[in-house]
Amino acid sequence: MSQSDAQSAEKAARYHQENQSRYLDELKALVRIPSVSFEGFPPENVRKSAEATADLLKRHGLENVRLLELEGAHPYVYGEWTNAPGKPTLLLYAHHDVQPAGDLAKWNTSPFEPVEKDGRLYGRGAADDKAGILVHVAAIDAWLKTAGTLPVNVKLVIEGEEEVGSDHLGAFLAAHRDMLSADAMILTDCGNFDTGLPSLTTSLRGIVVLEVEVRALKQAVHSGMWGGPVPDATMALCRMLASLTNEDGSIAVKGIYDRVKPLTESERQSIASLPTSDEKFRHEAGMLDGVHLLGGRPPWETNWRQPSIAVNAFEASNRKDARNILCESAWARVGVRIVPDMDPTETANLVIDHLKKAAPWGTQVEVKNLGGAPAWCTNSGHSAFELAMSALEKGYGKAPVLIGCGGTIPFAGPFGEALGGIPALLVGVEDPYTAAHGENESLHLGDFHKAVKSSIFMFGELSHLKK
Question: Which of 47, 103, 127, 465 would bridge with 443, disulfide CB 3.0–4.6 Å?
């Protein structure tokens, strides 16, 4: 970074420091909008969130701000600042939709009323990913308020359907590919390996989502009058789901590991060098005493580079109306996390075939593939990563690390490919205690402010990126 850019970045960082409370208030305003993108939740709330996000962008200097609409999709928000001729263009990404709140009884605060406590901000979307929106916007605002300009051009895309799998991403790219051309991407939808430890994510697992329903009866019947000779659909589904894993937790579906890309020795050493332990992993995950770690490998290697399978939801009657019956049907949602070089469609077909073959007693089985997204990984040897690492160290005051992520960001792979393989820099504000997607989601406020500061320096550093 040139001396003048460095001085401008320092001045912008001081401005952010003096205005932290204002940016935090703006984050809280977004969190108060229950922008759950799942089917069955009011879509008008996601639109309200998009409109509030667009207003935020306009107030902080972004130009050509508008909602980008696709039939059947929640709205994207777009804004840009492209007044730096000859300088690189950065495509900035975040999403404004959120997960459902979950079990309200398990929240210590109201999920859509942000609350500060012990240095954290609690609320659904506080970290995933409305803080990501403010990281971009606050950094842009700080530069414009102090220097009157940015050292780079920026195009900002805020998605409205990330939490439901970005189903319309292909159509979005087809419609807006030329408008989104850039030299690098920055995605603020990941996390840090530990609180206060800046991290760049270089791999993501993909996902496959299935629904399986088992039926044995036309209607529920008395378990005493008919139990024994009549099969129990719930028990049938339990047997099928149990057959998906081996004793060590690995997936028991034939052929599912055939395409798993092995780690290189340098990747294995990189994971081994991280400041962690099995005990720390257990604590961060919230595992109960006596519960075993699975996988037979270092836990982060298993989490980042091995496929996994989980029963996300299960329904057969319900706890409130529990009766002495044989349920006529049972339903479950199954999620499979996939890694390079697994194919989502092939993986789905393998699991569907396994489930149908495992169905006992002639029960009727229907399995639906709800779609998915591929895994993603990148080579950190591009010069953009060196520049980003320098910015992260300036923002956090600590050398960053390269990590993987067990989660999925559908945006990363398709956008990188559509834009010619430009480098994708995945950063974020989550830490091991964020509880994203769970009850009591929270944001570490210290990391939030450091992430904004890092973003300010990243604009300066990436201004020297070769176009």
Answer: 127
For the chain, give every domain's residue range: 3-204+375-462, 206-263+302-373
Report the alpha-carbon distance of residue 208 to residue 356 in Å, rounded: 17
DSSP output for 343-395: -HHHHHHHHHHHHHHH--TT-EEEEEEEEEE--EE--TTSHHHHHHHHHHHHH
- The Cα-based distances of 286 to 156, 166, 282, 283, 429 in angstroms read 35, 29, 6, 5, 19
Taking alpha carbons only, the member of 263, 300, 248 closest to residue 278 is 300
CA 165 to chain centre: 10
H helix runs in 43-158, sequence order: 43-59, 130-146
CA 223/CA 398 separation, integer angstroms: 62
Q: Tokens at residue 3, please? A: 């001396």
Contacts of 59 (CB under 8 A, 6+ apart): none
Q: Which residues contact 139 (CB under 8 A, 6 or more apart)?
A: 12, 16, 452, 455, 456, 458, 459
Q: Is the domain defined by 206-263+302-373 classed in CATH 3.30.70.360?
A: yes
Instruction: Give 238's DSSP letter.
Output: H
Residue of 97 and 270 predicted with greater confidence? 97
Written as six digits, the tokens of 273 are: 């060098």
Burial class (CB in 10 A: 0-12, 13-18, 19+), 13: buried
Q: How far apart are the first and last CA of the chain?
A: 16
Taking only the tens place, the pLDDT of each residue in 80-105 is: 999 999 999 999 999 999 999 999 99
Mean per-residue pLDDT over the chain, rounded: 95
pTM of the complete model: 0.89
For residue range 315-369, what is the model confidence (pLDDT) as tens digits? 999 888 899 999 999 999 999 999 999 999 999 999 999 999 999 999 999 999 9
Give the C-alpha separation, 311 to 309, whole Å: 7
Q: What letter does residue 297 receive in the DSSP assignment?
A: S
DSSP label of 404: E
Q: How confident is the model at residue 411 (pLDDT cuts 50, 70, 90)?
A: confident
Rounded (10°) CA dihedral 417, 421, 427, 431: 50
Specify the CATH number of the domain 3-204+375-462.
Answer: 3.40.630.10
How is residue 288 annotated by DSSP?
Answer: P
Q: Supply the DSSP symbol for 218.
A: S
